[in-house]
Amino acid sequence: MTLVLELMPIIVIGIIIIIAFLTFNAKKTITEVSCMDLQAETNSNAYNIETGFRMLTAKFGQYCDTMEQLSFETHDDLLKYIEPSAKYTAVENTGIFVGFSDDSYIFANHTKEDDSWKPTEQPWYKAGIGHETFVETAPAVDPVNNKLCISFVRQNDFFNGEVGVCGTNVYLSDIQAAVNELTPMKMR
Q1: At what angle do helices 75-82 and 2-69 cross, to 10 degrees?
Q2: In degrees to the nearest 10, what's the CA dihedral of 27, 28, 31, 33?
Q3: pLDDT of res. 124
């Protein structure tokens, strides 16, 4: 009996140390697993949001590549070719627009600017010069409908020798709504 009484404090201290060690390791493991789950969920959400952008830039890149490889007689012929892009809805956008180095322009959605407007003076035109693939611009407000957008732009060297910049405005309202609906670590 005395042996048990003498060993009891040692046993209690040992049990407390074991419980503390297991608690610390459990906390560390739970934190690591939670961080990995959160990172995986973040990656999945980002992929889902970016998919529309990738689809749009791939599709519109094909339009631009075709305009570089095929001969179009007039800008009206180019307009007829790009008109369907205004109906492409992977992400809400304007369709393709083209500004030429001689300050002529066409919009797939038939936007008309006033006579003083010159595409070569626009920030999106300057951003696209020198890029063979789409680059994005800083967010801006689309002057036609006052929606926040970014532009994807690239230089195009047309088959007939003309040089210009092709682009599209992508509206951010749908993306903002999708982001607002995200709840990290939401149980499904």
Answers
A1: 150
A2: -110
A3: 95
Pairing between strand 163-171 and 148-157? antiparallel
More confident residue, 159 or 2: 159
CA 93, CA 178: separation in Å to the nearest integer? 16
What single-letter amino acid sits at 142?
Answer: D
Q: Which residues contact 133 (CB under 8 A, 6 or more apart)?
A: 57, 61, 154
Give how far the C-alpha of residue 155 lies from the chain's centroid of Cα atoms, to the nearest Å: 20
Nearest CA to 94 among 138, 45, 145? 145
What's the predicted TM-score (pTM) here?
0.77
DSSP E strands, 88-162: 97-100, 105-107, 135-136, 140-141, 148-157
52 and 90 Cβ atoms separated by less than 8 Å: yes
Burial 39-73 (b: 16+ CB within 10 A, else e): eeeeeeeeeeeeebbeebbeebbebbeebeeeebe
Note the pLDDT tens digit of each residue in 133-165: 999 999 999 877 889 999 999 999 999 999 999
